Amino acid sequence: MTTGKKKFAAKRSGPLKGLRIIEIGGIGPAPFCGMMLSDLGADVLRIDRHQASDLGLPLDPRFDVTSRGRRSVTANLKDSETVKTVLTIAEKADALIEGFRPGVMERLGLGPDDMLKRNPRLVFGRITGWGQHGPLAHAAGHDINYIALTGALHAIGRAGTPPAIPLNLIGDYAGGAAYLAFGIVSALLEASRSGQGQVIDAAMTDGASSLMSMVYGRYAGNEWTDQRASNELDGGAPWYDIYETADNKYVAIGAIEPKFFRELLQRVGIDSANWSAPHDRACWPALREELTKLFKARTQTQWAELLEGTDACFAPVLGIEEAPHHAHNVAREAFVEIDGVSQPAPAPRFSRTPGSVMHGAPELGGGGGDALADWGFTQGQINHFRKKGLYWLDE
After folding, report:
1. Catalytic residue check, 142
2. Active-site option among 79, 114, 142, 326
3. Tens digits of per-residue pLDDT, 319-342?
4. Fewer CB atoms inside 10 Å of the end CB: C or N, the chain?
5. What global pTM score does this model have?
6. pLDDT digits (tens, 9 = 90+) for 193-216
7. Among 43, 48, 64, 172, which one carries the catalytic annotation?
8. What percent of the residues of the chain are helix, what percent strand, and what percent coil, each to the nearest 5?
């Protein structure tokens, strides 16, 4: 990947344009949160360690999709002079993202108290697995551990089998990064009125628990059983499930409402009079058996030709290679190509201030000098920062 000025020359767009955010380099949910904010226009300056191997980053930044859109400086945050430099930069920031274990930023001299003394309006966003306090706060863990504690992992999978691992989507990204991004934007809105920043404690256990709100409510109302694949939305119901096709591919059916269920049956040629009570659990095994045989009789493409775009609530189960080329995704430009790498486009969409991907992930120190200038530091200050341990690629 080239690192010349042309790579960082595009103008930012999006509803967060004008916001300046520091991201302390890390892995998992913190970079994904930074991507979300950058995609929507925020100028996110990442402070990385000098060695990429310390973070487990891919050798080629082209494939580090969740780090796209940022510019980078590198630093040794264990050096006191460099820490002072970071505090000076934070004076111009609107928000900060960090994903260390509780207490690490404080030990470095970069904790909320240190930052807010220099910039009272700063929103200090913290993302951890277990949260900033509690018996497990200082324990190591990853997505699978966090969602295990919330009931989410237990609820996903087939009956009689171990829970299924839903990638790292529920803890890291949905329950972690997305909640932190929402928290940062909310706190920035409040700061615009009060003039005061605050600290956000975004725990993946909290976010994953929040995502389970509907399930907990239905469980309390005796409408959900605590057994996998025994409920309407977890694969227990035959009209909300995945079926194998003749070509060993799969289709997804989600005909929850009675009118959609009737349309499904009508379109696939099943007499709806035989299944007039789709929510009668006693009927589920027989209906599942009939649907299993039915969908196995045609290929995925044949079922798509018959059902896609109807109210039967149908979709083919696509692989990563296939999804960007589906006609609907193509029409909505749901995927973009950056530096030759196909990747999801910014979301959500805005009618007047659309977001955009500025560029791919920077190399360590990529664009850092220009970023400091854009943040309003003089050339003398920038030169001083370099003498005090901050580094970036010359461009």
Report:
1. yes
2. 142
3. 999 999 999 999 999 999 999 999
4. N
5. 0.94
6. 999 999 999 999 999 999 999 999
7. 172
8. 40, 15, 45
